[in-house]
Specification:
Distance between the termini: 55 Å
Number of helices: 3
Oligomer: single chain
Number of strands: 11
Largest sheet: 11 strands, mixed
Helix content: 10-25%
Length: 178
């Protein structure tokens, strides 16, 4: 019987493939504390009007994430930041553009303090993979960065995540209401 359960577990792992979070490490360190992610989940996000090109959002956290739930969402960003698993966990969001530019928002859950920056504001990004299927790399600050209120912080994180396929786009609305 034990071998049957091992086989079932193995098959579930094979079937889930990219349904698991990828690895993350490093930290964001500030006067508020340290965010030390262990997992990375990546998905496609678009702006509300569909004007800007799609970007990849990477959620880095130490919390266990229900990746299957994010896969089914039409708005994975909203679903991710409202996950019950993140309620008492700090997290980092990275937005990776096709050209390799990166923006970030580090959020401390207890105070909802946020540190925001991008590759135009002092962050460096070294992406070893930036394809429609996978994003992987390092985002760091070679020198301490300053927040709007003047507080300094440092960041150095690495991550690797398969990109969840986006849910079907919403249906176009017709002029007729039912």
């Amino acid at each position: 019987m034990k071998s049957v359960w091992c086989l079932v577990a193995f098959l579930l792992c094979l079937m889930s493939g990219s349904a698991m979070a990828g690895p993350a490490s490093g930290s964001v360190r500030s006067k508020t504390g340290a965010i030390m992610p262990k997992r990375a989940v990546a998905y496609v996000v678009r702006d509300d009007e569909g004007v800007a090109p799609a970007r990849i959002e990477v959620l880095l956290t130490d919390a266990a994430i229900d990746v299957a739930r994010l896969r089914a969402e039409r708005d994975p960003h909203r679903a991710a930041i409202n996950l019950e698993a993140l309620r008492d966990h700090d997290y980092l969001l990275l937005w990776v553009a096709a050209d390799g530019t990166v923006a970030m928002n580090a959020t401390y859950s207890k105070t909802m303090t946020q540190y925001i920056n991008d590759t135009d504001g002092g962050l460096l990004a070294t992406l070893t993979s930036n394809t429609p299927q996978k994003v992987e790399g390092r985002v760091y600050s070679p020198v301490p960065l300053r927040s709007i209120d003047g507080a300094s912080y440092r960041m150095d994180v690495t991550f690797s995540a398969d990109i969840l396929a986006p849910a079907d786009p919403p249906l176009a609305r017709s002029g007729r209401q039912r």
